[in-house]
Amino acid sequence: MKKLEDAHPWSAEYPVERRKDWYSGAAEAYNRTRPRYPREIIDRAVELAQLPPAATLLEIGCGPGIATVEFAQLGFSMLCLEPSKEACQFAGQNCAAYPQVEIQNCMFEEWTLEPERFNAILAASSLHWVSAETRYSKTAAALQNNGSLILLWNFPPQPSYEVYQALEEVYQLHAPSLAKYEDRKTHESNISAFGEAAISSSLFSEPTVELRPCEIVYELDDYLALLSTLSPYIALEPQNQAALFAGLRSVLQQECGETIQTKYFSAVQVMKKI
User: Fold this and answer.
1) CA distance 55 to 127
2) β-strand 77-81 against 56-60: which pairing, if any?
3) How many helices (H) and strands (E) would you count in the chain?
4) Residue 64: is it exposed, middle or buried by C-beta count within 10 angstroms (0-12/13-18/19+)?
5) Helix (H, G, I), strand (E, B), or coil: what is residue 59?
6) How far is 125 from 187, CA to CA, in rounded Å?
7) CB count, 10 Å around CB of 221?
8) Which of 6, 55, 111, 197 has the greatest number of beta carbons closer than 10 A?
9) Domain assignments of the chain as residue spans, ordered by start
10) Exposure of 37 by Cβ count < 10 A (0-12 exposed, 13-18 middle, 19+ buried)?
11) What is the separation, in whole angstroms, between the first and last Cα of the chain?
């Protein structure tokens, strides 16, 4: 199994402009169908990072503001960076009630560093988008002494293994590389890769990591829309994606009807600047 940071097609060959627009066509579906972070994960992040009530956070890749809203509700001041214009629009709408939230349409690599300004840097399912050269050096430089890097992860919701087995033939026919069922050990291995890299940078302490099992029921159309927001599906040629989704729809209707019970893991990973 590839590590999370190595498992995506944009890591080397995709130019900056394509990375900026990667989710643009999926922004509405992303905002509507991506699972939210459980309150206990948010609370644990705040506790582990030892955030004071007046903390200032920098968020890398806020998307439509799924995690942003959770932290804004706690009163924190936030500067949120997001390269997709479409996602920025949704983030602005979702955070309209929180004047202490500022959203900038730019990549973290392009952002002008504000040294030692932030109590914490938040990256919710987004750190793998940041170039390896910048990932830890720039985050450490932007943090105050003893500040925290907070990584949140919502791994893609999956139907039961029995349903997955019924879907495997469709995946093998149209997208063999996506024919895999990921368990907790896979997620833990993916997360640990970021912790190991952070420690190797000599800029961060060993992280604290916690995972929580979650469940969510999707309407069939919403589940397929969710899949359309995942990078390996976005990377498919349009004809292949359409054929795959048609096959998945047919099997899922037979196996599940019009609603699908899914499970996923939500995780928090916090490491201190040293």
Assistant:
1) 21
2) parallel
3) 12, 7
4) buried
5) strand
6) 12
7) 11
8) 55
9) 4-157+182-217+264-272
10) buried
11) 31
Spatial distance between the Cα atoms of 127 and 112, rounded to a whole number of angstroms: 18
Q: Is 136 helix (H, G, I), strand (E, B) or coil?
A: coil
pTM of the model: 0.93
Contact 58, 33 (CB under 8 A): no
Question: What does the DSSP 8-state code read for residue 36?
Answer: P
What are the tens digits of pLDDT across the range 244-255? Answer: 999 999 999 999
274: pLDDT strictly greater than 80: yes
Residue keyed to tokens 């560093």: 113
For 217, the 3-state DSSP assignment is strand
Taking a C-beta distance cutoff of 8 angstroms, is the pair 56, 76 a contact?
yes
Backbone φ and ψ of 167, nearest 5°: -85, -15
Which CATH superfamily is 4-157+182-217+264-272 part of? Vaccinia Virus protein VP39 (3.40.50.150)
